[in-house]
Amino acid sequence: MLMAIRPARAIVLLILVAGLSGCANMSPTGQRALSGGAIGAAGGAILGTVAAGNPAVGAAVGGAVGAGVGAALPRIERSLNGN
Questions:
Q1: Are 44 and 62 in contact (CB under 8 A)?
Q2: Band (82; pLDDT cuts 50, 70, 90)
Q3: What is the DSSP string of the chain?
Q4: What predicted TM-score, i.e. pTM, was given to this entire model?
Q5: CA atoms within 13 A on the CB side of 38
Q6: Is 62 exposed, middle or buried (0-12, 13-18, 19+ CB in 10 A)?
Q7: In sequence order, what are the residues at sequence separation of 6 or more whose Cβ sits closer than 8 angstroms to the Cβ of residue 47?
Q8: Distance of CA 39 to the CA centre of its chain
Q9: What's the pLDDT score for residue 4?
Q10: Which of 48, 46, 43, 40 is nearest to 70 (CA)?
């Protein structure tokens, strides 16, 4: 038996699938920057809420830092390995 999907859940699922499929043709650096930005934004929102009561500022700062670190990660790894 098929379960009925609520329209709101179907829309969210469609947006997630479309968003994730857009990453298929990205360069490795772009993928690292995007994932670093997403992780940084989530962590920043949590810390911003706890520390200052403002998750939006925390998400913006965390996302920017995460994207920068994600994009620079190959260079950081090379310098740590001595290459």
A1: yes
A2: confident
A3: -PPPPPHHHHHHHHHHHHHHHTTTT--HHHHHHHHHHHHHHHHHHHHHHHHTS-HHHHHHHHHHHHHHHHHHHHHHHHHHHT-
A4: 0.64
A5: 8
A6: buried
A7: 58, 62
A8: 4
A9: 63
A10: 40
- pLDDT given for residue 15 in this prediction: 79
Residue at 17: amino acid letter = V
- pLDDT surpassing 50 at residue 1: no
pLDDT digit string, tens, across residues 2-56: 556 677 777 888 877 777 676 677 888 888 888 899 899 999 999 999 988 888 9
CA–CA separation, 23 vs 74, rounded Å? 19
Write down how long the chain is: 83
As a whole number of angstroms, the distance between CA 47 and CA 59 comes to: 9
Tokens at 17, concatenated: 């699938």
